[in-house]
């Protein structure tokens, strides 16, 4: 391959990168693993005879899907040794509030953290069939070889996954971003003031707060306005950086110029219905590195 041919191929690959990252992220729920899967696709492409690839986008999607499936199966085997009863939160996609870089929009669009948690409960084959067919419109004839099944069996995998997704009552957040941000700001103002009653008034009576503390502590889930309001005191005195977390209003909290948590809020009818919080120091620093600067 000449230098010009390699540059041409690299340009064509970059055109496909946003879609490939979106596929891998929905498959894996991890920004870092998604990037690795996409990079593996580039390595495969750079070694292949590109002139014999009729549909580059389809070929690359298949490579990324196959690599993602391999990673999911390896992850499932590792989970056999875990005892946590609650799922850990997937990696969120963070962007500055009011700024939507095109690639991050493609990556996070239409896939909230709540949906990613549900996808994590599927088998690797179910997840692949659902993601590729329902989210990216791939026909079952193309999905079947990836999971080693017939097209009829692949259709059944997607159908089972679809029932699981539909069986979960995923919240429908408010559509007014300004109003959503006002509710989040009021939440932190009340937390900083230690105003318990104001916090409770901002929370839905059946609010759920999911907290992921990292590998050294099991994840936790807190339910009810009073219980969640008591947890809000941990944010008192922290520096707040407004962000979007998979399109939802969120905040990165920091202390001494070091990010310590990532919080995402689902707001419905003006009340906070769900809070997803990542407090794993290593993961927070990696994911929020572009948000908090000394």
Automatic annotation (TrEMBL):
Domain SnoaL-like: 184-235
Domain called RNA polymerase sigma-70 region: residue spans: 13-78
Keywords, sorted A to Z: Sigma factor, Transcription, Transcription regulation
Every RNA polymerase sigma factor 70 region 4 type domain range: 114-164
InterPro entries assigned: ECF_Sigma-70_Domain, NTF2-like_dom_sf, RNA_pol_sigma-70_dom, RNA_pol_sigma70_r2, RNA_pol_sigma70_r4_t2, RNA_pol_sigma_r2, RNA_pol_sigma_r3/r4-like, SnoaL-like
Transcription as UniProt keyword: yes
Superkingdom, taxonomy of origin: Bacteria
Keyword Transcription recorded: yes
Family (UniProt): Belongs to the sigma-70 factor family. ECF subfamily.
PANTHER family for the chain: ECF RNA POLYMERASE SIGMA FACTOR SIGI-RELATED, SIGMA 19 FACTOR
Quaternary state and interactors: Interacts transiently with the RNA polymerase catalytic core formed by RpoA, RpoB, RpoC and RpoZ (2 alpha, 1 beta, 1 beta' and 1 omega subunit) to form the RNA polymerase holoenzyme that can initiate transcription.
Record-given protein name: RNA polymerase sigma-70 factor (ECF subfamily)
Organism from which the protein derives: Kribbella orskensis
């Amino acid at each position: 391959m000449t230098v010009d041919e390699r540059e041409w191929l690299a340009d064509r690959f970059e055109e496909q990168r946003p879609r490939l990252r979106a596929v891998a992220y929905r498959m894996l729920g991890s920004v870092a693993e998604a990037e690795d899967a996409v990079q593996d696709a580039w390595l495969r492409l750079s070694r292949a005879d590109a002139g014999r690839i009729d549909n580059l986008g389809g070929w690359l999607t298949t490579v990324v899907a196959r690599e993602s499936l391999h990673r999911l199966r390896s992850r499932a085997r590792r989970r056999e040794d875990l005892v946590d009863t609650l799922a850990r939160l997937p990696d969120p996609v963070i962007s500055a509030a009011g700024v939507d870089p095109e690639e991050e929009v493609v990556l996070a669009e239409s896939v909230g953290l709540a949906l990613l948690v549900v996808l994590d409960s599927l088998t690797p084959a179910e997840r692949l069939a659902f993601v590729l067919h329902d989210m990216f419109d791939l026909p079952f004839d193309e999905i079947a070889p990836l999971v080693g099944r017939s097209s009829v069996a692949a259709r059944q995998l997607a159908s089972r996954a679809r029932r699981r997704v539909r069986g979960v009552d995923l919240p429908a957040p408010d559509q007014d971003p300004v109003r959503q941000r006002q509710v989040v700001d009021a939440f932190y103002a009340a937390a900083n003031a230690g105003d318990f009653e104001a916090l409770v008034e901002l929370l839905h009576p059946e609010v759920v707060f999911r907290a992921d503390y990292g590998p050294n502590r099991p994840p936790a889930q807190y339910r009810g306005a009073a219980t969640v309001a008591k947890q809000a005191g941990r944010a008192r005195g922290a520096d707040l950086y407004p962000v979007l977390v998979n399109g939802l209003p969120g905040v990165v909290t920091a202390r001494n110029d070091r990010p310590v948590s990532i919080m995402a809020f689902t707001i419905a009818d003006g009340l906070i219905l769900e809070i997803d919080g990542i407090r794993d120091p290593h993961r927070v620093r990696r994911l929020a590195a572009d948000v908090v600067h000394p």
